[in-house]
Amino acid sequence: MTTKNPEILAPEKFPEKREKYGSLIKIPERIERNITPSVITESGEKGQKRFWEFFTVTIRNKNTRIAYLTAAHQFFDWCLERGFKLETILPMDVALYIETHPGSIPTIKQHLAALRMLFDWLVIGHVIEFNPASSVRSPKYSYPKGKTPVLTAKQTRKFLDSIDTSHLVGLRDRALIGLMVFSFARVSAAIKMKIKDYYHQGDDSFFRLHEKGGKYNVVPAHITAQIYLDEYLKAAGIADDKKAPLFRMSRSPRNKTKLSYDPMNRNAVLKMIKRRAKEAGFPEINCHSFRGTGITAYLKGGGTIEKAAFIAGHSSTRTTQLYDRTKNEISQEEISRIVI
């Protein structure tokens, strides 16, 4: 038995999540319809209320909310198959779930973190007596270098030059990619920008990037990114509409001369990048590749890891180091010393 909670979370479409989960399509759809897991439903009205309060009161980021809801649905489905009730779930049950989870280690760690926080919230609300996930150890994961593929400076120039800018959509795409490369911007921060977030003070120009947790990061605009943005805004004729979205969806897939008022979403940006990367001969890159590309080019140009972290909005240089591919070349040079 399941219940709906239509007033707790506004229904939204998540096509990018459906594409990602594939055979697990039922999970995003159930989240979209705000359906409570049966194990929670059976715990009573207090448990249901507390469950949804956790996702609406404690989590502000939409993507985190979706990820944690997905984790909760998967875990409680697993519990339902084994006949577990909410109050009978033990640490060894959570440990078994983690041990047999088919996902990658980062996914497993995220799911365990979601369960720990959710059960803590249920304990504080006196729905259950103890947190069965608190003592379960997560699998170890250490990766000194990021997995995101990045481009060299030469490859990036080839990629940017391959974009057909004889029409508005091409100018928009080049401006967006240029922004991500030259300001280390996350795609989510770039698509949240309004036209007023690209502004001028005297002879200098700046990008105001809206980051996670309601924070924003002001980055000086690189001259190349300025040129791309100015050409795009001039062609679009939208520079004076300061409160409007900066990067907008095209009115139709075939219409390359007019844009709608709706901002681009991450799924649309990813599809655009995949299409253009294939045309340019770089099929493996994604939205995040340009962040790593920019950071690596900056460090190669003599920049410091501390300044790179500041520009990227990282709280720790350890995160920035994941994007640094300059050490790859050093490793190759060193290994070539082996002569047999």
UniProtKB/TrEMBL annotation:
Sequence ranges assigned to domain Tyr recombinase in this UniProt record: 146-337
The keyword Cytoplasm appears for this protein: yes
Residue ranges of every copy of the Core-binding (CB) domain listed in the record: 52-123
SUPFAM superfamilies for this protein: DNA breaking-rejoining enzymes
InterPro entries recorded: CB, DNA_brk_join_enz, Integrase-like_cat_sf, Integrase_catalytic, Integrase_recombinase_N, Tyrosine_recombinase_XerCD
Subcellular location: Cytoplasm
Keywords: Cell cycle, Cell division, Chromosome partition, Cytoplasm, DNA integration, DNA recombination, DNA-binding
PANTHER family assigned: PHAGE INTEGRASE-RELATED, TYROSINE RECOMBINASE XERC
Protein name as catalogued: Tyrosine-type recombinase/integrase
